[in-house]
Design a protein that fits this description.
By secondary structure, the chain is of the alpha/beta class. Helix content is 28%, strand content 16%.
């Protein structure tokens, strides 16, 4: 008789029919929900017109992967990605993708705006799919908690696209701080050159015809419905922040500029905070702050401000003293440290750690002469291969990715807590255990915001 070679899905289907699951070794199936090295990982990309276009191509470069399915609500915006993967099956509605593809795919990449992460990721998890989601994980703290619980229950491989905390530079930072290179660290500063999209504006008073190539209702998803507006008028003040951008877009909401609107995005802090915090939180062993406060430029009801400073206070933990962490955006930076050499200025974006024996700027002690005199500690942390390869390794049954959902939930909570402090303008006391603010009840309405247009989050 001729030999018949079965792939994993065929093997599982036939084993189920024969009642063999109790005696099938895990190594044959690649572990619980894992894909063995001998089989190509079939990936579906949802939201592949913007940042998702480049990221889905990066995933495709990891050996043993195949971009099998693509989905986007905007045919024009997604066209370059469709052309890059002409054999991929196409969808506009992610719900139809999940219903139709079923066991044909192993993993989901979600690159949509912040407000639709949860409604896409939760059913993907419940279907047993491995998931990689752009940062931040969600737009609200409640959504973050739902997704992290679901991921833990299902046991799939997850990843969020924050700047990898397993790179050599990130690991070296941890090793230096844990070695006592600058003594006890009680203060840290993080700053970003964002936003590069409009913020600090009012809702447009006009409405435009929705292009036939865009499903506006599906783009809006669970956010409050509003009319489509295509572009800001030429020379509108709302465009002043994007003129210096490498790729300025005059769009009001879509594409790209959703980030400045509270209904759809999470501002500069939500966009870049997870990148920076992924290093800071690991090096300083941070989890949940106990209090948050913020100062900002004029804050409108619907949009993030032009600039803000957010202050977080963390308790003592794991042998480290209490810490105050400050975030700056909109061109604001911390005071220039006295240790910085004459003629040098703080970079446009960066992290700074202030200890009782010195200062680390990004991952180097300043001034340079002090860094040269410091004896680096042994490399005790494993260096890994980056965001995409880590996720694929986890799908194969390896170690969890560096920014898996449980860890990403901590980072997401932090940026969202900062945004709530910005929106309320109040000093807030936070109980992570109760998932609520204990000193200002109105702020709790932002922890779990109402869904609209018939959407719900079941988890």
């Amino acid at each position: 008789m001729g030999q018949v070679r079965l792939n994993r899905r065929q093997f599982m289907a036939r084993a189920a029919g024969a009642g063999l699951f109790t005696i099938v070794p895990r190594r044959v199936l690649g572990g619980a929900r894992h894909v063995p090295p001998s089989e190509t990982i079939q990936i579906a990309g949802i939201g592949i017109g913007g940042v998702g276009s480049g990221q889905i191509r990066s995933i495709d470069k990891v050996p043993g992967t195949r971009i099998a399915v693509l989905c986007d609500v905007d045919d024009v915006y997604a066209d370059r990605t469709y052309k890059a993967f002409p054999k991929a099956r196409r969808y506009r509605d992610f719900r139809r993708l999940l219903d139709t593809e079923g066991d044909k795919i192993d993993a989901i990449y979600c690159g949509t705006p912040d407000h639709t992460h949860a409604i896409i990721v939760l059913p993907a998890l419940q279907a047993g799919k491995h998931v990689c989601c752009v940062k931040p994980l969600t737009r609200t703290i409640h959504e973050s908690r739902v997704l992290t619980r679901a991921a833990e229950k299902v046991g799939v491989a997850t990843q969020v696209t924050a700047s990898a905390n397993t790179s050599d530079g990130a690991c070296r930072l941890c090793e230096m701080i844990w070695d006592g290179a600058i003594g006890e660290v009680r203060e840290a500063h993080v700053w970003s050159n964002r936003p590069l999209w409009p913020q600090g504006m009012q809702r447009p008073a006009w409405k435009d015809r929705v292009p036939k190539t865009l499903d506006w209702d599906l783009w809006i998803g669970p956010a409050p419905m509003r009319p489509f507006a295509e572009k800001w008028p030429k020379n509108d003040p709302a465009l002043h922040q994007v003129k210096a951008s490498r790729n300025p877009r005059p769009a009001v909401y879509h594409p790209w500029n959703f980030r400045g609107w509270w209904d759809f995005g999470t501002g500069a802090l939500g966009d870049m905070g997870c990148h920076h915090f992924n290093h800071v939180f690991r090096a300083l062993k941070l989890r949940q702050p106990t209090s948050i406060s913020a100062t900002a430029s004029q804050v409108f009801n619907e949009t993030a401000p032009l600039a803000s400073i957010v202050t977080y206070d963390f308790p003592a933990r794991e042998g480290m003293p209490p810490l105050r962490l400050l975030w700056y955006d909109g061109g604001l930076k911390p005071p220039r440290p006295a240790e910085l050499e004459p003629g040098r200025e703080l970079p446009a974006s960066g992290n700074m750690y202030v200890g009782d024996k010195g200062v680390i700027l990004d991952n180097r002690i300043i001034p340079d002469e002090k860094m040269k005199a410091y004896k680096m500690p042994p490399k005790t942390l494993p260096r890994r291969s980056g965001t995409w390869a880590e996720w694929i390794e986890a799908i194969r049954g390896g170690e969890p990715a560096g920014c898996h959902f449980e860890w990403a939930g901590v980072l997401t909570d932090a940026v969202l807590l900062g945004n709530i402090a910005i929106r309320t303008g109040k000093h807030l006391e936070w109980s992570a255990q109760k998932t609520r603010f204990t000193n200002h009840e109105p702020a709790n309405r932002y922890v779990n915001e109402k869904y609209h247009n018939g959407w719900s989050l079941q988890g």
